[in-house]
Predict the structure.
Amino acid sequence: MSFNVPEVQEKRLVIVGAGFAGFTLANKLRGSGFQVVLIDRNNFHQFQPLYYQVAMSGLEPSSICFPLRKNFRSDSRLLVRVAEITSVDTEQKQIHSNIGVLNYDILVIASGATTNYFGNDSFASNSIPLKSVSEALYLRNRILEDLEQAVLVRDESNKDLLMDIVIVGGGPTGVELAGSLAEMKRHIVPKDYPDLNAATMDVHLIQNTARLLNGMSEKSSQVALEYLNRMGVHVHLNTMVEKIESESVYLNSGKVIPTRKVIWAAGVKASPLPGLPDQAYHRDRRIVVDDHCRVAGTHDIFCIGDVSYFPSKAFPNGLPGLAPVAMQQARYLAKLLLHQKQNQKLTPFRYLDKGQMATIGRSKAVLDFGRLHLSGFLAWMVWLFIHIYYLVGVRNRIVVFINWVWSYLFYDQALRLNIKPYSPGAHSNEGKRSNDRSGSSA
Amino acid sequence: MSFNVPEVQEKRLVIVGAGFAGFTLANKLRGSGFQVVLIDRNNFHQFQPLYYQVAMSGLEPSSICFPLRKNFRSDSRLLVRVAEITSVDTEQKQIHSNIGVLNYDILVIASGATTNYFGNDSFASNSIPLKSVSEALYLRNRILEDLEQAVLVRDESNKDLLMDIVIVGGGPTGVELAGSLAEMKRHIVPKDYPDLNAATMDVHLIQNTARLLNGMSEKSSQVALEYLNRMGVHVHLNTMVEKIESESVYLNSGKVIPTRKVIWAAGVKASPLPGLPDQAYHRDRRIVVDDHCRVAGTHDIFCIGDVSYFPSKAFPNGLPGLAPVAMQQARYLAKLLLHQKQNQKLTPFRYLDKGQMATIGRSKAVLDFGRLHLSGFLAWMVWLFIHIYYLVGVRNRIVVFINWVWSYLFYDQALRLNIKPYSPGAHSNEGKRSNDRSGSSA
C-alpha cells in the first residue's frame, strides 16, 4: 500500500487536513497548476460549528459532512487520500503516514486541534468529547440510551444519575449544548417520556472563569448567562472540575454532582506534526508561523488554522481557533502560493475580525460585530443564515433548512434514533443486540 | 431494572417487535382501552424495503427510521420499552427479557425474521448481511473504505479484490443492490475515483434457482434479468455458493470469484420466542397460527408478520414475508381484539395479494398486480410513490423525496460518508483514527 500518486512535472503541494483551513485552501487552488494532494483521516469535510446539533438529534451527520471526492471531482490535478500522517521529514521533504511515504515540494499543515484534557486521565476516561461527528453521534446515542434506562429504574437517585447532565466549559460549544439540552428538557422529554418527571432533569454548565463566552463581549456574556438562567440551566462560574468519576463530578467548590454523563467542552489542543525544527513548536503545541503563515525555520512548509500559532497585536497569544481565521489564512495562502509561482511578494497576512456569535436556543443568540452587540431573534436569524451559508453543498443547505424550520414550527428535533453499530462476526442482528456503549452510529 | 410499567385495571396487551406488523398494530390500537406495551430492541421503527438505499449512500438512516416514542407520544395508554425478549412463560403469562419480567393479559409476537446462513459458518463470518439499518451503514462504510484502499494498492488483482462485489441471493434485495451497484459503477466511480478504472469493477449476482425474483411473475423475472444484463451485472442462475472465504467465493459450478466483499441476501429465518407449546413451532422456526392469527395451542397469544406461519390456498408454505402481509395481519388483529372485547366473533384473516414490485435502477422497475405486469419508467414511478407513501413521518417523506429527485437529476448519491464509530476510552480522536472495520456509523 502506498500513496500511489502519479509523478508529474508540476510541483506537488501536500495539504494535511481537510477542515476549514485545508478544505478552503484546496478549493482556492483549483487549476492552480500545482499537483495538490489533500489528505484527511476521513473521506469527508466536517462542519464543526454544528456538531452539537447532531448530538441533540437536530441534524443528520450527513447534513454537516461533505464527501471530499465529490467536491473535488472536477479537478483532475487534485488527489484525495484518506490517511493518518505520523511525521514530517524536512530533510527528505517527505511525510510519513499509515499508508506510506509521500514526497512534497510544498507542505501545508492544517491538522487542526483535538480535545484537551489537560493531562487528567479522569477527565479523559469519564467524559464525552465533541470534536468530531462520530463523537457527536456517540453523545446522541448516550443521551437517548440513558433516558430509556431512566424509565426502567425505579429509584429516584438512579433516575437523576441517568437524566442529569454536566457540561464542562462555557465557550460557544458548552453554551449551545446547555441551551439545547434545556429546550429538550422543556419541549421533548415531557412528551416523549411521560413516565419520567422532566423537572428532575438538571443541566449543569461549569465555567472556570467569571463569565461565559470569554471570547466575546462582556455584554454578550451577560445576555447568554441570563438566557441560560431563565432556561433553568445551573451555571457554575469561577468553578473548576477537580475530578470526574463514572458517577460523579467533583468541583473545587467542594460540591459533588452525581451524574453518569459529563460532556467535555473545556478546551482544545493543537495536533501538530513531529519532525519540524524545534523553534517551530510553541509551548502549547501549536506550530509557530511567520507573518506569511510560513513555519518558523522552514521555507517550503506552511501552517494554517487551529494548529498554527500566529500572534498579532489584538491577539498576543495567537489568533483564536475559529473558522473565519482558518478560512482567511487559507485564502491568503492560496494567493501567496500563486504569487510565489510568479516570484512575486505578498504583504503579510492580517486577520479581519468579523466578530463572533453563539446561539443559546430558539430566538436566542448573541452576536458581536465590532462595537455592535446584537441579541435575541435578530441575532438568531443572522446565526442561522450565516451557518447555512457556510455549509458545503446545496443539498445539505436545503436539508438543514428544512430541519430547522421543522423544529422551529414543531418544537421538535426529529431524529431521536439510537442506531447501534453493527460489528461483523457477530452474526445477524447480534450487533444491534449488544447493549454495550462502544461505537456511535446514525 | 425492570419494565416499570404502571399497574392499571385495563388489560395489558404486550407487543414484541416494532416492525411493520407490531408498529401497525400499535397504531391501530390507539385509544382501544388496552394498556399497550410495545417492545423493540431499538427505539425506532425501521423501513426495511429501503435498507439497500442506505447501503448505497442514497438515503440517510434517519430518513427510513422513525422514533417510537415520538410516534406514540399522544397516547398515554401506550408504553414504549427498549428491550430484548428472551422467552415467554405461558403458565405465568409472563415474558422474560434483559430488563426483567413482564406480565401480559394478551401477547402479540411480531419479532420478525433475521438473516439465514443455513448453518454455514463460512457464510456467516465472511459475508455482510442487510437486515437492519446498522448493517446497511456497515456495508456503506465497507464499500467506501474498499474503494479508498483500491486507490492505494498498485497491483491490479488487489484492486479487483477490493472493487468487485458478490451478491448472494436474487430476491428483491439482491436485485435492487445489484442494480444500484451497477449504476454506482457507471455514474459515480469514474467521477469520484479518477485514479481507478471503473470498468474493472465487477458486480456478481448469485441465484440458486432458474430465475430472479422467484416471488414474482416469469415476465418480471425476465425483464429484471434483461435490465441487469444490460447494466453489466454478471448474473449466475442455477448456481449455489458452497463456501465463502475472506478473499474468495466458491460456486458449485467450480468457479471461484476473488473478492473481499460478499453481500448475503439469500434468505431469512424467523426469530421465534422460546416457551410456546411444541405444536406452535413449524420446522422452519416460524410460529404456527390458526386462521385468526392465534398461536397454536394457546388462546391469549397471537403472532403476525414474518415470524408467523400462516398457510393458505395460494401459499401452502405460509404467507410470504412481505410488508403488506404483516400490515394486513396487524389491521386484522386490531379489529379482532376490539371485537373480542365486545365478545364478538370475527371471520378468519384473508390475505389480499396486492402484487409485488422491485426496482432495478433509474426508470427501471418491475411490478406484478394480478395479471397486470408493468415495467420501465411507469413501474418505477409507482414504486417510488408507494414507498414514499408508506414511509413514517412527513419530514422523512420530504427528505426522501428531495434525495430521490436530487439523485435522479444529478445521477448522484449524495451521502458517500464513511463515518467511523467513536469508542469511549479511546481518547479524543482515536475512535476516528482506528482503521479497523468494526462498527457502522453515519
